[in-house]
Amino acid sequence: xxxxxxxxxxxxxxxxxxxxxxxxxxxxxxxxxxxxxxxxxxxxxxxxxxxxxxxxxxxxxxxxxxxxxxxxxxxxxxxxxxxxxxxxxxxxxxxxxxxxxx
Length: 102
Known about the structure:
By secondary structure, this protein is α+β, with helices and mostly antiparallel strands. It has one helix at 7-27, and strands at residues 31-36, 50-53, 59-61, 67-73, 76-83, 90-97. The protein is built from one helix and six strands. The longest helix is centred in the N-terminal third of the chain and has 21 residues, at 7-27. The relative contact order is 0.21.
């Protein structure tokens, strides 16, 4: 019997295929928003910040490193609202989402 691929090559091909098609399957051609929230004064990440895409039902909460990820966002230009008790809410404008990008 002939071997076309070694086990390592086969694993690399499968990984490549999964990564290539996962965005098409999971994202349905939509984009995502990612970011990190830090304190202006201390420059430290802030956890548990509510991040909301204004005008949609989409949002996320920052993790322990201040990072957030919002998936399946339609292509458009949005505003993001950041809020947390003890901080003033902030709105960031002109956030452009492009299909298939983050």
